[in-house]
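Good morning C.,

I know you're traveling, so I'll keep this short. The sequence:
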Amino acid sequence: MDYAQVLVAVDDGPAGQTRLEFCRELAIATRSGVIGLAAASHTPSPVGAELGGGLSADLLTAYREAADFVLMQAHPAFT
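The tokens, ready to paste straight into the viewer:
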């Protein structure tokens, strides 16, 4: 059976490495590509009354940069 793509969840733990190795073997056996999915979540701080119940643009940028950093850590598994 051939698959066009195989999706695998990637994280930096030993289970993530095992999943990636299994997915690689499956992709080779089925002549398919591999799509890696890595997710990062940073819970924002409680909103401040001084901001009208919102978050500052600087704080949102910092959360985005932190999430990008975590995702880039997963990138070497696919290169």
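Safe travels,
E.
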